Amino acid sequence: MATKEVAQATFQWEGTDKRGQKLRGQLTGTNEMMIKATLRRQGINPLKVSKKAQPLFGGGAKKKKIIPKDIAIFFRQMATMMSSGVPLVQAFEIISNGHENPSMRDMILQIKADVESGSPFAAALRKHPRHFDDLSCNLVNAGEHAGILEDLLNKIATYKEKTEAIKGKIKKALFYPIAVLVVAFVVTAVLLIFVIPQFQAIFESFGADLPALTKAIISLSEIMQEWWWAVFLGLGLVFGTTMEAKKRYPAVDHAFQRLSLKIPIVGTILHKASVARYARTLSTMFAAGVPLVEAMDSVAGAVGNIVYGNAVRRIRDDVATGQSLQFSMKSTEVFPNMVVQMVAIGEEAGSLDTMLGKVADFYEEEVDNMVDSLSSLLEPLIMVILGVLVGTLVVAMYLPIFQLGQAV
Predict the structure, then answer these.
(1) What is the pLDDT of residue 63?
(2) 325, 292 in Cβ contact below 8 A?
(3) What are the two backbone dihedrals, phi and then psi, of residue 19, each rounded to the nearest 5 degrees?
(4) CA distance 279 to 299
(5) Per-residue model confidence as pLDDT tens digits over 15-45
(6) DSSP 22-46
(7) What is the mean pLDDT of residues 98-106?
(8) Rounded CA gap, 253 and 251, in Å?
(9) Deepest in the core among 3, 6, 27, 297, taking most CB within 10 A?
(10) Cα distance between residue 131 and residue 126, in whole Å
(11) pTM of the entire structure?
Protein backbone atom coordinates (compact mmCIF):
# COMPACT_ATOMS: atom_id res chain seq x y z
CA MET A 1 0.00 0.00 0.00
CA ALA A 2 1.41 3.44 -0.96
CA THR A 3 2.51 5.67 1.92
CA LYS A 4 0.56 8.89 2.19
CA GLU A 5 2.62 11.96 1.37
CA VAL A 6 3.47 13.93 4.55
CA ALA A 7 2.25 17.52 4.72
CA GLN A 8 5.05 20.04 5.30
CA ALA A 9 5.26 23.54 6.71
CA THR A 10 7.87 26.26 7.19
CA PHE A 11 9.13 26.78 10.76
CA GLN A 12 11.00 29.74 12.21
CA TRP A 13 13.65 28.88 14.79
CA GLU A 14 16.00 30.54 17.25
CA GLY A 15 18.93 28.85 18.94
CA THR A 16 22.59 29.01 19.95
CA ASP A 17 25.67 27.40 18.46
CA LYS A 18 28.47 25.68 20.39
CA ARG A 19 30.02 29.06 21.25
CA GLY A 20 26.76 30.39 22.65
CA GLN A 21 26.15 32.75 19.75
CA LYS A 22 22.48 33.34 18.98
CA LEU A 23 21.23 32.21 15.57
CA ARG A 24 17.87 32.24 13.80
CA GLY A 25 16.45 31.02 10.52
CA GLN A 26 13.82 28.94 8.76
CA LEU A 27 13.48 25.23 8.00
CA THR A 28 10.87 23.13 6.23
CA GLY A 29 9.53 20.03 7.98
CA THR A 30 6.51 18.12 9.20
CA ASN A 31 6.57 19.16 12.89
CA GLU A 32 8.54 21.00 15.57
CA MET A 33 10.23 17.81 16.87
CA MET A 34 11.72 17.09 13.46
CA ILE A 35 13.01 20.67 13.15
CA LYS A 36 14.64 20.47 16.60
CA ALA A 37 16.28 17.14 15.74
CA THR A 38 17.62 18.60 12.48
CA LEU A 39 19.05 21.62 14.31
CA ARG A 40 20.76 19.44 16.93
CA ARG A 41 22.41 17.37 14.19
CA GLN A 42 23.77 20.64 12.81
CA GLY A 43 25.27 21.55 16.21
CA ILE A 44 22.60 24.11 17.11
CA ASN A 45 20.76 24.13 20.46
CA PRO A 46 17.13 25.04 19.60
CA LEU A 47 15.56 27.56 21.99
CA LYS A 48 12.37 28.41 20.12
CA VAL A 49 10.65 26.75 17.15
CA SER A 50 7.31 27.95 15.78
CA LYS A 51 5.35 27.43 12.60
CA LYS A 52 5.61 30.40 10.26
CA ALA A 53 2.29 32.18 9.80
CA GLN A 54 0.89 31.87 6.30
CA PRO A 55 0.25 35.26 4.61
CA LEU A 56 -3.37 36.13 3.89
CA PHE A 57 -4.85 36.24 0.40
CA GLY A 58 -2.23 34.00 -1.18
CA GLY A 59 0.78 36.21 -0.48
CA GLY A 60 4.36 34.95 -0.46
CA ALA A 61 5.99 32.50 -2.81
CA LYS A 62 3.45 30.80 -5.01
CA LYS A 63 3.50 27.02 -4.90
CA LYS A 64 3.93 25.36 -8.26
CA LYS A 65 2.81 21.90 -9.22
CA ILE A 66 5.58 19.31 -9.41
CA ILE A 67 5.64 17.94 -12.95
CA PRO A 68 7.39 14.80 -14.28
CA LYS A 69 10.05 17.00 -15.90
CA ASP A 70 11.06 18.23 -12.42
CA ILE A 71 11.56 14.63 -11.30
CA ALA A 72 13.65 13.83 -14.39
CA ILE A 73 15.86 16.86 -13.74
CA PHE A 74 16.18 15.87 -10.06
CA PHE A 75 17.52 12.41 -10.94
CA ARG A 76 19.90 13.86 -13.55
CA GLN A 77 21.23 16.36 -11.00
CA MET A 78 21.65 13.62 -8.38
CA ALA A 79 23.51 11.41 -10.86
CA THR A 80 25.79 14.30 -11.82
CA MET A 81 26.47 15.23 -8.17
CA MET A 82 27.32 11.69 -7.12
CA SER A 83 29.54 11.11 -10.16
CA SER A 84 31.42 14.26 -9.09
CA GLY A 85 31.98 12.84 -5.60
CA VAL A 86 29.45 15.02 -3.77
CA PRO A 87 28.02 13.24 -0.67
CA LEU A 88 24.34 12.29 -0.87
CA VAL A 89 23.04 14.67 1.82
CA GLN A 90 25.09 17.57 0.50
CA ALA A 91 23.73 16.88 -3.00
CA PHE A 92 20.17 17.29 -1.66
CA GLU A 93 21.12 20.63 -0.13
CA ILE A 94 22.75 21.94 -3.31
CA ILE A 95 19.86 20.86 -5.55
CA SER A 96 17.16 22.25 -3.25
CA ASN A 97 18.89 25.63 -2.91
CA GLY A 98 19.09 25.99 -6.69
CA HIS A 99 15.52 24.90 -7.48
CA GLU A 100 13.01 27.53 -8.60
CA ASN A 101 9.92 25.48 -7.73
CA PRO A 102 9.11 25.92 -4.00
CA SER A 103 7.11 22.68 -3.92
CA MET A 104 10.00 20.71 -5.39
CA ARG A 105 12.45 22.42 -3.05
CA ASP A 106 10.35 21.52 0.00
CA MET A 107 10.06 17.89 -1.11
CA ILE A 108 13.83 17.58 -1.62
CA LEU A 109 14.43 19.02 1.84
CA GLN A 110 12.00 16.48 3.29
CA ILE A 111 13.91 13.68 1.54
CA LYS A 112 17.15 15.13 2.88
CA ALA A 113 15.77 15.20 6.44
CA ASP A 114 14.62 11.57 6.15
CA VAL A 115 18.02 10.43 4.86
CA GLU A 116 19.80 12.39 7.62
CA SER A 117 17.64 10.67 10.21
CA GLY A 118 18.83 7.27 8.97
CA SER A 119 16.24 6.28 6.36
CA PRO A 120 17.50 4.73 3.11
CA PHE A 121 17.22 6.92 0.01
CA ALA A 122 14.62 4.57 -1.52
CA ALA A 123 12.48 4.65 1.65
CA ALA A 124 12.58 8.46 1.64
CA LEU A 125 11.39 8.48 -1.99
CA ARG A 126 8.53 6.07 -1.21
CA LYS A 127 7.01 8.69 1.11
CA HIS A 128 6.17 10.70 -2.03
CA PRO A 129 4.36 8.13 -4.23
CA ARG A 130 2.71 10.82 -6.35
CA HIS A 131 6.07 11.80 -7.78
CA PHE A 132 8.32 8.72 -7.43
CA ASP A 133 6.91 5.55 -9.00
CA ASP A 134 7.74 1.99 -7.98
CA LEU A 135 10.22 1.66 -10.83
CA SER A 136 12.37 4.56 -9.59
CA CYS A 137 12.16 3.45 -5.95
CA ASN A 138 13.03 -0.17 -6.82
CA LEU A 139 16.05 0.88 -8.87
CA VAL A 140 17.31 3.23 -6.14
CA ASN A 141 16.85 0.43 -3.59
CA ALA A 142 18.79 -1.97 -5.82
CA GLY A 143 21.54 0.61 -6.26
CA GLU A 144 21.87 1.18 -2.53
CA HIS A 145 22.12 -2.54 -1.76
CA ALA A 146 24.56 -3.29 -4.60
CA GLY A 147 26.72 -0.20 -4.02
CA ILE A 148 26.08 1.13 -7.55
CA LEU A 149 23.69 3.97 -6.71
CA GLU A 150 25.54 6.43 -8.95
CA ASP A 151 25.18 4.13 -11.98
CA LEU A 152 21.50 3.45 -11.37
CA LEU A 153 20.69 7.11 -10.77
CA ASN A 154 22.18 7.78 -14.19
CA LYS A 155 20.01 5.00 -15.70
CA ILE A 156 16.88 6.41 -14.01
CA ALA A 157 17.70 9.90 -15.27
CA THR A 158 18.17 8.64 -18.83
CA TYR A 159 14.96 6.61 -18.63
CA LYS A 160 12.94 9.56 -17.29
CA GLU A 161 14.32 11.93 -19.94
CA LYS A 162 13.51 9.56 -22.81
CA THR A 163 10.07 8.77 -21.36
CA GLU A 164 9.20 12.47 -21.07
CA ALA A 165 10.50 13.06 -24.59
CA ILE A 166 8.23 10.40 -26.08
CA LYS A 167 5.26 11.68 -24.01
CA GLY A 168 5.88 15.12 -25.49
CA LYS A 169 5.87 13.68 -29.00
CA ILE A 170 2.56 11.88 -28.37
CA LYS A 171 0.98 15.08 -27.04
CA LYS A 172 2.24 16.88 -30.12
CA ALA A 173 0.68 14.21 -32.36
CA LEU A 174 -2.68 14.50 -30.58
CA PHE A 175 -2.64 18.30 -30.47
CA TYR A 176 -2.90 18.88 -34.22
CA PRO A 177 -6.13 16.93 -34.90
CA ILE A 178 -7.78 18.58 -31.91
CA ALA A 179 -6.53 22.00 -33.05
CA VAL A 180 -8.03 21.42 -36.52
CA LEU A 181 -11.45 20.63 -35.06
CA VAL A 182 -11.41 23.54 -32.60
CA VAL A 183 -10.30 26.12 -35.18
CA ALA A 184 -12.84 24.86 -37.73
CA PHE A 185 -15.68 25.02 -35.19
CA VAL A 186 -14.77 28.51 -33.96
CA VAL A 187 -14.46 29.97 -37.48
CA THR A 188 -17.78 28.42 -38.54
CA ALA A 189 -19.53 29.65 -35.39
CA VAL A 190 -18.26 33.22 -35.91
CA LEU A 191 -19.48 33.25 -39.51
CA LEU A 192 -22.90 31.84 -38.58
CA ILE A 193 -23.47 34.22 -35.67
CA PHE A 194 -22.06 37.49 -37.04
CA VAL A 195 -21.65 37.33 -40.85
CA ILE A 196 -24.62 35.33 -42.17
CA PRO A 197 -27.24 37.61 -40.48
CA GLN A 198 -25.94 40.55 -42.56
CA PHE A 199 -26.63 38.63 -45.77
CA GLN A 200 -30.01 37.46 -44.42
CA ALA A 201 -31.18 41.07 -44.07
CA ILE A 202 -30.24 41.74 -47.70
CA PHE A 203 -32.02 38.61 -48.97
CA GLU A 204 -35.25 39.54 -47.15
CA SER A 205 -35.32 42.78 -49.10
CA PHE A 206 -35.18 40.84 -52.40
CA GLY A 207 -38.47 39.04 -51.73
CA ALA A 208 -37.33 36.21 -54.04
CA ASP A 209 -37.24 32.48 -53.38
CA LEU A 210 -33.81 31.42 -52.03
CA PRO A 211 -31.78 28.34 -53.07
CA ALA A 212 -32.01 25.27 -50.82
CA LEU A 213 -28.37 25.58 -49.68
CA THR A 214 -28.86 29.23 -48.70
CA LYS A 215 -32.06 28.39 -46.76
CA ALA A 216 -30.24 25.61 -44.87
CA ILE A 217 -27.34 27.91 -43.91
CA ILE A 218 -29.72 30.69 -42.82
CA SER A 219 -31.70 28.22 -40.67
CA LEU A 220 -28.47 27.02 -39.06
CA SER A 221 -27.44 30.64 -38.48
CA GLU A 222 -30.74 31.42 -36.76
CA ILE A 223 -30.30 28.44 -34.47
CA MET A 224 -26.75 29.54 -33.59
CA GLN A 225 -27.84 33.14 -32.95
CA GLU A 226 -30.52 32.05 -30.50
CA TRP A 227 -28.88 29.05 -28.90
CA TRP A 228 -25.13 29.77 -29.20
CA TRP A 229 -24.77 29.75 -25.42
CA ALA A 230 -26.43 26.32 -25.21
CA VAL A 231 -24.14 24.94 -27.93
CA PHE A 232 -20.96 26.16 -26.23
CA LEU A 233 -22.22 25.16 -22.77
CA GLY A 234 -23.20 21.71 -24.05
CA LEU A 235 -19.82 21.13 -25.65
CA GLY A 236 -18.10 22.32 -22.46
CA LEU A 237 -20.20 19.99 -20.32
CA VAL A 238 -19.55 17.03 -22.62
CA PHE A 239 -15.81 17.69 -22.57
CA GLY A 240 -15.70 18.26 -18.81
CA THR A 241 -17.85 15.23 -18.03
CA THR A 242 -15.74 13.04 -20.29
CA MET A 243 -12.49 14.16 -18.67
CA GLU A 244 -13.89 13.69 -15.16
CA ALA A 245 -15.25 10.24 -16.06
CA LYS A 246 -11.80 9.25 -17.36
CA LYS A 247 -10.27 10.26 -14.02
CA ARG A 248 -12.92 8.68 -11.79
CA TYR A 249 -13.82 5.50 -13.64
CA PRO A 250 -11.02 3.20 -14.91
CA ALA A 251 -13.41 1.44 -17.29
CA VAL A 252 -14.06 4.72 -19.15
CA ASP A 253 -10.35 5.51 -19.30
CA HIS A 254 -9.58 2.00 -20.57
CA ALA A 255 -12.25 2.32 -23.26
CA PHE A 256 -10.69 5.57 -24.50
CA GLN A 257 -7.23 4.00 -24.50
CA ARG A 258 -8.44 1.07 -26.59
CA LEU A 259 -10.27 3.40 -28.96
CA SER A 260 -7.23 5.65 -29.34
CA LEU A 261 -5.21 2.78 -30.82
CA LYS A 262 -7.75 2.51 -33.68
CA ILE A 263 -7.52 6.15 -34.78
CA PRO A 264 -5.88 6.37 -38.24
CA ILE A 265 -2.23 7.51 -38.14
CA VAL A 266 -2.47 8.63 -34.48
CA GLY A 267 -3.22 5.04 -33.43
CA THR A 268 -0.06 3.84 -35.19
CA ILE A 269 1.97 6.45 -33.32
CA LEU A 270 0.47 5.32 -30.01
CA HIS A 271 1.25 1.67 -30.83
CA LYS A 272 4.90 2.48 -31.55
CA ALA A 273 5.15 4.69 -28.47
CA SER A 274 3.86 1.88 -26.22
CA VAL A 275 6.38 -0.56 -27.70
CA ALA A 276 9.17 1.98 -27.17
CA ARG A 277 8.19 2.55 -23.52
CA TYR A 278 7.92 -1.21 -22.93
CA ALA A 279 11.40 -1.81 -24.33
CA ARG A 280 12.97 1.18 -22.57
CA THR A 281 11.50 0.33 -19.16
CA LEU A 282 12.32 -3.37 -19.31
CA SER A 283 15.83 -2.64 -20.59
CA THR A 284 16.48 -0.24 -17.70
CA MET A 285 15.22 -2.63 -15.04
CA PHE A 286 16.91 -5.71 -16.50
CA ALA A 287 20.24 -3.86 -16.73
CA ALA A 288 19.85 -2.93 -13.05
CA GLY A 289 19.58 -6.59 -12.10
CA VAL A 290 15.88 -6.61 -11.27
CA PRO A 291 14.40 -10.11 -11.85
CA LEU A 292 12.34 -10.37 -15.02
CA VAL A 293 9.05 -11.37 -13.36
CA GLU A 294 9.39 -8.64 -10.73
CA ALA A 295 10.25 -6.04 -13.39
CA MET A 296 7.07 -6.76 -15.35
CA ASP A 297 4.84 -5.10 -12.74
CA SER A 298 6.64 -1.78 -13.21
CA VAL A 299 6.73 -2.25 -16.99
CA ALA A 300 2.95 -2.82 -17.13
CA GLY A 301 2.35 0.52 -15.43
CA ALA A 302 4.82 2.37 -17.66
CA VAL A 303 3.64 1.38 -21.16
CA GLY A 304 0.87 3.99 -21.07
CA ASN A 305 -1.96 1.96 -22.63
CA ILE A 306 -4.29 -0.64 -21.11
CA VAL A 307 -3.98 -2.96 -24.13
CA TYR A 308 -0.21 -3.21 -23.73
CA GLY A 309 -0.49 -3.17 -19.93
CA ASN A 310 -2.71 -6.26 -20.00
CA ALA A 311 -0.35 -7.90 -22.51
CA VAL A 312 2.63 -7.29 -20.21
CA ARG A 313 0.75 -8.83 -17.26
CA ARG A 314 0.04 -11.92 -19.34
CA ILE A 315 3.73 -12.06 -20.24
CA ARG A 316 4.60 -11.83 -16.54
CA ASP A 317 2.35 -14.79 -15.73
CA ASP A 318 3.75 -16.84 -18.61
CA VAL A 319 7.38 -16.09 -17.72
CA ALA A 320 6.67 -17.00 -14.09
CA THR A 321 5.65 -20.48 -15.25
CA GLY A 322 8.92 -20.96 -17.16
CA GLN A 323 8.10 -19.79 -20.69
CA SER A 324 10.63 -17.71 -22.60
CA LEU A 325 10.09 -13.97 -22.92
CA GLN A 326 9.99 -13.98 -26.73
CA PHE A 327 7.40 -16.80 -26.83
CA SER A 328 5.23 -15.00 -24.26
CA MET A 329 5.45 -11.74 -26.21
CA LYS A 330 4.51 -13.47 -29.46
CA SER A 331 1.44 -15.10 -27.90
CA THR A 332 -0.01 -11.68 -26.93
CA GLU A 333 -0.20 -10.71 -30.64
CA VAL A 334 0.37 -7.01 -29.90
CA PHE A 335 4.14 -6.78 -30.40
CA PRO A 336 5.61 -6.46 -33.92
CA ASN A 337 7.51 -9.48 -35.25
CA MET A 338 10.77 -7.51 -35.40
CA VAL A 339 10.58 -6.79 -31.66
CA VAL A 340 9.91 -10.44 -30.84
CA GLN A 341 12.85 -11.56 -33.01
CA MET A 342 15.25 -9.06 -31.41
CA VAL A 343 14.17 -10.19 -27.94
CA ALA A 344 14.76 -13.81 -29.00
CA ILE A 345 18.28 -12.91 -30.15
CA GLY A 346 18.90 -11.04 -26.92
CA GLU A 347 17.81 -14.02 -24.83
CA GLU A 348 20.02 -16.40 -26.82
CA ALA A 349 23.06 -14.11 -26.66
CA GLY A 350 22.59 -13.10 -23.02
CA SER A 351 22.29 -9.43 -23.96
CA LEU A 352 18.57 -8.83 -23.49
CA ASP A 353 19.01 -5.34 -22.01
CA THR A 354 21.14 -4.25 -24.98
CA MET A 355 18.65 -5.57 -27.53
CA LEU A 356 15.72 -3.97 -25.74
CA GLY A 357 17.63 -0.70 -25.67
CA LYS A 358 18.09 -0.90 -29.45
CA VAL A 359 14.38 -1.63 -29.89
CA ALA A 360 13.53 1.41 -27.77
CA ASP A 361 15.90 3.63 -29.77
CA PHE A 362 14.40 2.44 -33.06
CA TYR A 363 10.77 2.96 -32.06
CA GLU A 364 11.43 6.30 -30.38
CA GLU A 365 12.96 7.48 -33.65
CA GLU A 366 9.95 6.06 -35.52
CA VAL A 367 7.56 8.01 -33.29
CA ASP A 368 9.61 11.17 -33.81
CA ASN A 369 9.54 10.79 -37.59
CA MET A 370 5.81 10.01 -37.68
CA VAL A 371 4.97 13.04 -35.53
CA ASP A 372 6.99 15.28 -37.84
CA SER A 373 5.24 13.75 -40.86
CA LEU A 374 1.84 14.20 -39.23
CA SER A 375 2.63 17.83 -38.51
CA SER A 376 3.61 18.42 -42.15
CA LEU A 377 0.45 16.66 -43.35
CA LEU A 378 -1.95 18.49 -41.06
CA GLU A 379 -0.75 22.00 -41.85
CA PRO A 380 -2.24 21.94 -45.40
CA LEU A 381 -5.13 19.80 -44.13
CA ILE A 382 -6.15 22.60 -41.76
CA MET A 383 -6.23 25.00 -44.70
CA VAL A 384 -8.33 22.56 -46.77
CA ILE A 385 -10.90 22.01 -44.00
CA LEU A 386 -11.22 25.71 -43.28
CA GLY A 387 -11.40 26.42 -47.02
CA VAL A 388 -14.24 23.93 -47.51
CA LEU A 389 -16.23 25.28 -44.55
CA VAL A 390 -15.75 28.94 -45.40
CA GLY A 391 -16.19 28.26 -49.12
CA THR A 392 -19.53 26.50 -48.53
CA LEU A 393 -20.82 29.45 -46.50
CA VAL A 394 -19.62 31.97 -49.10
CA VAL A 395 -21.20 30.06 -52.00
CA ALA A 396 -24.48 29.72 -50.07
CA MET A 397 -24.58 33.49 -49.47
CA TYR A 398 -23.71 34.49 -53.04
CA LEU A 399 -25.99 32.05 -54.87
CA PRO A 400 -29.07 34.34 -54.49
CA ILE A 401 -27.04 37.31 -55.75
CA PHE A 402 -25.95 35.33 -58.84
CA GLN A 403 -29.57 34.28 -59.52
CA LEU A 404 -30.72 37.88 -59.18
CA GLY A 405 -28.06 39.00 -61.64
CA GLN A 406 -29.17 36.37 -64.19
CA ALA A 407 -32.82 37.44 -63.79
CA VAL A 408 -31.90 41.09 -64.50
Answers:
(1) 63
(2) yes
(3) -90, 0
(4) 9
(5) 887 777 777 777 777 778 887 887 787 778 8
(6) EEEEEEEESSHHHHHHHHHHTT-EE
(7) 83
(8) 5
(9) 27
(10) 9
(11) 0.68
